[in-house]
């Protein structure tokens, strides 16, 4: 896996993945050109885990209509300001969904499949929850 990050100006950078997809990152909150690198980490872990949950539920023939994942994180107060706690909350919507299958999908992602969350769990307390929405 490869990627490239290129400085544009001030604290703004573009990142290009090995697959050719790009993103703007910004270390200056006031300019607002893109998420910060730490926000990108949160988006990455939530994206990784959400992909797992959707994939597992689809393989289980669950009729999911929507999955939204909220992420809350806490950081150390002093440098390096690493994440100390990360919580992912999955909101799953669908028709006649089996709650046990949702629970299993979230658990499998957290414990077996999501490389990003398993890696970050080595440095921060990582927790998961879910709810079934009507």
TrEMBL record:
InterPro entries: KH_dom-like_a/b, OsmC/Ohr_fam, OsmC/Ohrsf. Coiled coil: none annotated. This is Peroxiredoxin. Transmembrane segments: none annotated. It comes from the Bacteria. Gene3D superfamilies: 2.20.25.10, 3.30.300.20. NCBIfam families: PRK10738.1.
């Amino acid at each position: 896996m490869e990627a490239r990050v290129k400085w544009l100006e001030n604290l703004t950078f573009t990142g290009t993945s090995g697959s050719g997809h790009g993103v703007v990152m910004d270390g200056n909150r006031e300019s607002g050109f893109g998420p910060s690198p730490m926000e990108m980490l949160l988006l990455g872990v939530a994206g990784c885990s959400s992909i797992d949950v959707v994939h597992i539920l689809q393989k289980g023939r669950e009729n999911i209509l929507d999955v939204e994942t909220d992420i809350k994180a806490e950081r150390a107060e002093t440098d390096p300001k690493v994440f100390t706690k990360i919580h992912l909350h999955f909101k799953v919507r669908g028709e006649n969904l089996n709650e046990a299958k949702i629970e299993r999908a979230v658990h499998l992602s957290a414990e077996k499949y999501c490389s990003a969350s398993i890696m970050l769990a080595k440095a921060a307390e990582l927790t998961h929850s879910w709810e079934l929405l009507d």
